[in-house]
Design brief:
homotetramer; alpha/beta; TIM Barrel; three-stranded parallel sheet; metal ion binding (chains A, B, C, D); EC 5.3.1.- (chains A, B, C, D)
Chain lengths: 430, 430, 430, 430
């Protein structure tokens, strides 16, 4: 297997931190044992956990106002896979990559699959794109795609999704994620009902072509790029879609796609209860679909989402098998650093949720002891589980401190020298 | 039939406005005719339209900080019915009253029904109350009602709903509206899934006892009185309830119960499309469940909701038969004046939606002519339909200018003399 | 003066609508007279009113996901001025254009000024751009501009603003509008206090170079492009800036730059009261800085803003002289049509505010007659003032129905033939 | 000094936890030492820190829908002081109580002061109440108080504030907190400018009577009890007030009084920078002014607020001396437990902010290393500082685990037996 970061750098980095980590792990183990928790069992679960990385995440993102690229931007999916391999090597938490078509389209799928294998990466859910026009495309998506009033445009969008499935089959993917920007900017522009009927008809055509062992994930979003109405605007509509399509259809929850103040963990619980939670696009946000680094704004909210997931896992909820993926826009950081940190944040929330005293919690809930129920969650959240995460990484040949190891490796400077600088772009779209 | 306002006052008031109204109606008819619209047909529809008044709406509302009562507060449901009769006499748009149990509980239901008949009022949906404790109640709803962890408390809440149905049957009502405040104030306080399972079980027990010709309306609300999670928090959960319960179960939409920025008219469209729109609690809001007078904050939003309703009515959407009710808190106005004005605002939105050029709109939607689609709605909304509403009222023996007629009648001073002043209350709940 | 639309087309269009307009104007005059309002006086004020058009508004806008250009996109500021001239010719409500530097930078300012004169357009406030990197720029604005931690970058941003002033002086502009995207995406990324100190220092350098008869407008915005904190995030900070800078500094209010639910008309009132209202960027929004067409989402809110403006105008508030400009992103419409319609919407809100019965309103406010105060505003808002606007346009040689006249003229097809199609862009910025 | 909880109970509770605490404190000290932090120095600061408790907080709160009292509700301010003394005895973090007039009005101020002394409690800021009508009050606050259109009503509100100052002087308080509910429920109901002028005039009269060594805190709030506009709606208006009044006037920040998504820590920074931060009402919220327990919903936000406070403290910001108070509504918990837990949460955020590596942070900020700046804060936040807080309590004769000690003491059952049960109330205010 090709390793992007030299093991000598990594070993030296780990060596400098190993003793302190051992002490911290022991001390934490002692404290957890007092609470009846076996630290090694938690570590084993954390070590087995992974979150997929989006191929587009390793490039610098931007806004409609501007994009400010960083050095060494990946030029194509092969470069992107190498960056993803760095993330996986150091964190040991991101074994799969999620592709975006047509951005990651290649002529030789076999070469792509081989590259992934060589880097130890598999291919997660495929993502279609009918929210922008590819060069030379016959019909524009300016006024919609799967819900467009014109049947030829809808057909084109359906075909594109089918092509994504075909590519995914070649790469070993088992799921298709469909997010559309379809909607309207003016009251009256679109007939809500007819648009949704058209969307459902199109999705049924896609669904019909889905292999038996695949799942299809639909993703809701409140607004942007449409600013008055969006066809798949919330989890209610998303649930209706999954219900209309059938047993292979599930709802994808992106943490930044909801109205202000919405209780997202409750939506997660409802979708689990009705067997339609497909998975997540993890990120964080303060205002809208900010696509900030996971856990950087409201880490307790992330924990509360994982509290629902571990609750479902613990009681072996029927049909519970969500896919986990990061989906962020890295506008001001090195994308590799952001994705490593975010993957660790997801793992941290998982670890914290694992050490919730669920028996005590259930008792407090039954007795309506609101304060102690809250404290039970807070106690788990307050626990600094970093020694667990770091030990899991170390034992899996990753880094105790991935960002430090990455910086020590000089990887960014190396690829900056190899990959030519790209223009900024975005500045004329206001 | 007993008339609360003397016809001589009403006639005098109308006489002073009749000529101007005739001219305005003619001039508007001329303008509408140019757009291919028959003003008399619109007037006929408006004249036939009614919205129910909530019995509690004729008392002065308040907040957790204070309640500032006005003069002549109704002392009981009989007083309330008289106030409601004033509203109906002058607006001719509020033929039914919606009761709230136990607030409107009486020992003699026959007398109550008779009083309604004498005043020309029928009884709309019954409203149960399991969000506050009635004196002497065996089990408290402090920690929930239909979803409470304790089965005896749930049973009590179920029985209360069944009692509401019994009362409603005696009065000629055909629907039960269920809104619960159940939820939690702390993460962890409640297990979302188990609480919803308990809620559904309780509601199934209520549903099972529903007469064949009744409907049951469940009402979602984002927050308040619970401030972290609410069991029936949004239309997605509300839809699941209606689906789980069966064909007599429908979703009620209160305009003030959504997250900030949410597109409510789209939710209305979805519920119509999936045959689960039960009806409305009309009001307006700027921040939360402000319960302000309908149309006082965002009249265009109200129009857009009615645009969906008329769209469904026009295409005779399957299963479309929503109930219309006002639900407001009148903290700084004479409740009778607010309810009259709000009933007229609802009628206004309906009239404006009726004169939308739907054929042109459909064409613009098909061609993605967003600007002209928007202008088609705006043109209807901009039309001052007051002459239509006023003429419909006049021809139905109501008032051209209900507030002016009401003030001229001296009704408030009269009841202030008859009904003793009540204390303010509310001041200690912070 | 060069006319972009042939007068024969315009005359024919107007001829077909003139009789109906005359009747409608008379009928409206009759109704207004009954309320003690002289329709001709209102018309005169409306006719004298103008709103500036942003040069960038005549191009198609987009989002970070995609931009879908329309036919005949303007290639440069000369093309843009021609499009602006169409808007002014037909609406007679947009006599000035606001430029954006460097987007509208030219080598020959004299030619630009002459072109404006020939088209009957003057130059409104200059807009600087330090939120994106121009090709070849020495220092990047990736991490801020006027508040950047690096003094050379701040100096560059200051110089750019000074250059904008110089260009504006040559063109007859009298104001500089400064909006920066400076902020942060992570808690901790920026020290709020130091960043604001640096911003103020930079702005003081710009202010020092401002000609005596110029004003400087600073614009606040809650978020985007920065997603955790923004240096000039709200009107409170904006007020502090204007206060720190001095008497030529004022606050600019963009209707889409506030937190959800915020009462914008109240902010307008506060800024007027404290003599710091500089002007407006008009648009509409439902979720964030959606930059939708003015009045398309919440026309009553627009009216309430104008209600404050007319209130201040009526009482001749000290220091009250706001600048009016549209600032919208036209993603799915012909930008010329959107700007014409929006200019008319602004005029409509002004006309509606002019016919508010201010004496009655003051009385109701004094007596706390909330309902009648509200009805006083609603009565004005409900009045269809289109005949006033259309007559004002007609008498100023504009179009009774600008969009219809524009479509009849074939202008878009003509420029589409002359101006080569442009690429979409935007698709890689997610 | 009177101790409400017997020392034998407390000692037994502490004894059972002391060994584990010693180990945890040592282990944490070891980890902090590695980061260059002296745990004892942090502990000393935490031990010296206190937050005031609101007298009304020890009673059960409610909503406009209902209030569900708990057992042993305090009957008067003497009972309330005893409950507050429990909180202080166990947490050693709440040495002062903030009174609310007229709720806490007594005939014998000397007795009240003595009772406080006996319990080891001092008196923090006085709170006036002009948002509800006291029995027998001459003028109603239904339509406002300090901003009312009627001068006699304003005068009454001024006098009430002056009385609060007089009471406070007798008790040793040094500050007056003014929060008014003044505002409007309808567009047009209130003239924003005139209402604010009247408010300022009234406040100037209050300010004029303020003793030299007192401060006056004004508190802004977006909405509730007024639902369209609020006179002191945000920090911008609050700043204007403090500026207009003079050097003894400061702004109070309640964490739940802002628009959705607003960056509160930034407002705190601005007020510090402009020397007008008066202090805090701590609580937490998810939707509006939910008045939930501090740190229960978004603990990271609380930490970010304290990060600003410690930043200001570290650089000895000019004029920086904020008052700290809890302000919560305990609807579903034992108020004593909630207040103890919340006081500890405030201390926790303070301790976490104290261990931020500020030198490293400043370096990352200077270099725009957004990721490491964020990680620097997250590292401090992730540290479980409970051993520091618990040791500080223990060394101050408080409880290692205050809630457990309180439950063991049987205090609630004791007062429930002494204090008669109270009615629920609130149920009629909808």
């Amino acid at each position: 297997m090709t390793l992007m970061i030299s093991t000598s750098v990594l070993d030296a980095e780990n060596a400098s931190r190993r003793d302190a980590l051992t002490r911290d792990y022991e001390s934490l183990g002692d404290r957890l044992a007092r609470r009846g928790i076996d630290i090694d069992a938690v570590k084993a679960k954390v070590a087995a956990y992974g979150v997929a990385v989006p191929s587009w995440g390793v490039g610098t993102g931007g806004t409609r106002f501007a994009r400010f690229p960083g050095p060494g931007e990946p030029r194509n999916i092969f470069d992107k896979l190498e960056d993803c391999a760095v993330i996986q090597q150091l964190t040991r938490a991101t074994p799969a990559v999620s592709l975006h078509i047509p951005w990651d389209k290649v002529s030789d799928l076999g070469a792509l699959k081989e590259k992934g294998s060589a880097l130890g990466l598999s291919f997660d859910a495929m993502n279609s794109n009918t929210f922008s026009d590819a060069p030379g495309q016959a019909h524009s998506y300016k006024f919609g795609s799967l819900s467009h009033t014109d049947s030829a445009t809808r057909r084109q969008a359906i075909e594109h999704n089918l092509e994504c499935v075909e590519i995914g089959k070649a790469l070993g993917s088992k799921a298709l994620t469909v997010w559309v920007g379809d909607g309207s900017n003016f009251p009256g522009q679109s007939n809500f009902t007819r648009a949704f009927e058209r969307y459902l008809d199109s999705m049924k055509a896609v669904y019909a072509a889905l292999p038996d062992d695949w799942r299809i994930f639909t993703e809701h979003k409140m607004f942007e790029p449409a600013f008055y109405s969006t066809v798949v605007q919330d989890w209610g509509t998303n649930y209706l879609i999954a219900q209309e399509l059938g047993p292979k259809a599930f709802c994808l929850v992106d943490l930044g796609h909801h109205a202000p103040n919405v209780n997202i963990e409750m939506i997660v619980a409802r979708l689990i209860q009705f067997k339609k939670l497909g998975g997540f696009h993890f990120n964080d946000s303060k205002y809208g679909d900010d696509d900030l680094d996971t856990g950087s704004i409201d880490p307790y909210r992330l924990f509360l989402v994982f509290n629902e997931l571990v609750d479902a896992e613990t009681r072996a909820a029927n049909g519970f098998d969500p896919a986990h993926m990061l989906d962020q826009s890295h506008n001001v950081t090195d994308p590799i650093e952001s994705l490593m940190t975010s993957a660790m944040e997801v793992g941290r929330a998982y670890a914290q949720a694992l050490i919730v005293d669920r028996k005590a919690l259930a008792g407090y809930q039954e007795e309506n002891d609101a304060l102690m129920a809250s404290e039970t969650l807070k106690t788990a959240f307050r626990t600094d589980v970093e020694p667990i995460l770091a030990t899991a990484r170390l034992e899996n040949d990753g880094a105790i401190a991935p960002v430090a190891a990455y910086r020590a490796s000089g990887y960014r400077a190396r690829v900056a020298a190899e990959r030519p600088a790209v223009a900024g772009g975005g500045g004329g779209i206001v």
